[in-house]
Amino acid sequence: MGLAGEATTYPWLDKFAGGARQSEGSDYPTLRELGAAYSEVSEAMNRRLEGLSDAVLLEAVDDVPGEQEPTLRGVLTFWVWQDCYHLGQVGSILTTLGLTDFEALHYRRKQRLTSEPA
After folding, report:
1. What is the rounded CA–CA span in Å between residue 85 and residue 91?
2. Are 104 and 93 within 8 A, CB to CB?
3. How far is CA 108 from CA 112, 113, 114, in A?
């Protein structure tokens, strides 16, 4: 968001930034809080992207992560890839451990919450 010209705050930077001290998780935000924050950022990012021209997307950016082109488009491409990569890792871990998969966690959420216990 910052690179796309939007003021940005990071409410849990002290917990999740690179090098942040890890805990057992009791002080982490709830899944509901994380989901709300993710939705808020996604909506803001979508609004911002709609207003960006090709010229802005192709402007040079310093310190591009990964091996992307050194442009705003390259940075955005990297972070989309990064999120997808890590979601895939989580999905693999869940499946390997025999835990509930993403489909059940997300897409069948309403069914899980309203179903009578077996």
Report:
1. 10
2. no
3. 6, 9, 10
